[in-house]
Specification:
Radius of gyration of chain A: 21 Å
Number of strands of chain A: 8
Strand order of the largest sheet of chain A: 3-2-1-4-5-6-7-8
CATH topology of the largest domain in chain A: Rossmann fold
Largest interface: A-B, 62 and 62 residues
Number of helices of chain A: 12
Structural class of chain A: alpha/beta
Strand content of chain A: 5-15%
CATH class of the largest domain in chain A: Alpha Beta
Oligomer: homodimer
Shape of chain A: elongated
Chain lengths: 281, 281
């Protein structure tokens, strides 16, 4: 009998993960209640089986891969079903939530008899061409997550308790996206002060790898800026009020809110940034 | 008769610039009133001549290279002397000040008959081995700064008004030092959440050039953190209250204040950062 893995969330990441797992011999279930015809088609294209919630609770492993705001809801939905399940296995939350939210999920699922593990996905959805993304898992003493490695995922087991994988995701996103916010802020300031051309020249000389990174990462950010606002607030909360980084990431949220507003208006800021980067995109 | 250039400020940068200029045939004057024997010795080693203020006002070019907080004082000190000078030439402020402070300096020297130019030095003090740093100058329609190029400095003339060179310095420092503040914040958060080892591995995979940069720039920052606090506030002021970057750099100031306090205490944060970076320095 093949390994059965359930994935809650059949978005771009969830369905790509499902596809990779089915291609490596796993049977992959997902909830399809109330989903659009388009989503059900994507589920089937990925080789996943749309099932009802009781079948989910019979899986060998359940992965939650949903937007951060839905993470607690998934745990609440599953909690009674997992409590009633005859065989107990493990639930892994792979969402971009902070460790405090992860703790809430652990509490929600306490008493079900299931192991609750912390996960973080770093990288873009798997494709036929890529080996990525990486699946970090912490709190997995029983090595439940080895099933993922067995079925084609790039697993990175962390020798650390629940909370560490969520923290890793926060820290990595803070670095990566914070860099984009810092770059956008300074490039706009350069454009507004007559120093843009010299700045680009100077970066080309003394920070070439940063200029190259900005030429890709800043334009890639524009359409995602509205989502990053909430992510920056999540990172601020993770750092906590005693860390000066908390105010740093609240300000980052405002930087991205400004870009998001610009995207909904005339895209003038984006045009200025492209001009500084000499990126005609 | 050789070109005479006066440098106000014979610190590490000022005296190294003086040395470079004298080696390229310029006569270089500096104010020595009330300076320590050590400073006077450094002035002489650099081939510069310690003079009284009236001689400064007879130079072909005056450069101000002092700590940011002293920039306005230099202009106030020189103002009456420049007004009385028979031949008028140019004064270049090369200090790390924001464009509003540069405007104050222009006002202070208005009516002296001298051209007031805006400059920014980017890079480390000149040495026998280096071609750097770069000397950016804006507002120089009359091309006074060509004297600097003629005497061995790496000049970058900006086709932009007074204020642009100061802005460039703010923007470049904001990028470069902001990156260090962002890195220190996230690395400390990783260490506090059990994700440091995974973060370093992930950075090694997906952000290797950033990890390399941090391995040098974060430890280099510790002894300078106390100075960077004021610089971050200066950048916040430059961006202005309507720019979300203003709050960003106020938070950066707090990040460096935390490191500066740690340097004055037991250096525990520095030790944690070195551990994450695997930098035994």
């Amino acid at each position: 009998m093949p390994t059965t893995i359930a994935i809650i969330g059949a978005g771009a990441m969830g369905s790509a993960v499902g596809h990779r797992l089915t291609q490596h011999g796993a049977r992959v279930l997902t909830l399809a209640d109330g989903r659009s015809a388009k989503t059900v088609a994507r589920i089937r294209d990925a080789g996943m089986e749309p099932v009802v919630i009781d079948e989910i609770a019979a899986a060998d492993l359940i992965l939650s891969i949903v937007p951060p705001a839905e993470a607690i809801g998934v745990a609440e939905l599953l909690s009674p079903k997992l409590r009633d399940a005859k065989t107990k296995s493990a639930f892994i939350d792979f969402n971009a939530i902070n460790p405090a939210t992860m703790q809430q999920i652990t509490s929600t699922l306490a008493g079900t008899g299931w192991d609750v593990l912390d996960g973080a996905i770093i990288g873009s959805p798997p494709t036929a061409e890529s080996t990525g993304p990486k699946f970090y898992v912490s709190g997995d003493q029983a090595r439940h997550s080895s099933l993922l490695e067995k079925h084609g995922l790039n697993l990175r087991l962390m020798e650390a308790p629940v909370g560490a994988a969520s923290a890793l995701k926060m820290v990595y996103a803070g670095l990566n996206k914070g860099l984009v916010g810092l770059g956008a802020t300074m490039l706009l300031a350069a454009a507004g002060s007559g120093s843009a051309e010299s700045l680009r020249g100077e970066m080309n000389d003394s920070l070439p790898e940063l200029l190259l990174r900005f030429q890709k990462s800043i334009p890639d950010m524009y359409p995602k800026a509205y989502r990053w606002v909430a992510e920056m607030h999540e990172i601020a909360e993770f750092l906590g009020p005693d860390d000066p980084g908390s105010a740093l990431f609240k300000a980052m949220a405002d930087v991205f809110a400004r870009i998001a507003a610009d995207q909904n208006a005339d895209g003038q800021l984006a045009a200025i940034l492209n001009g500084v980067l000499e990126n005609p995109a």
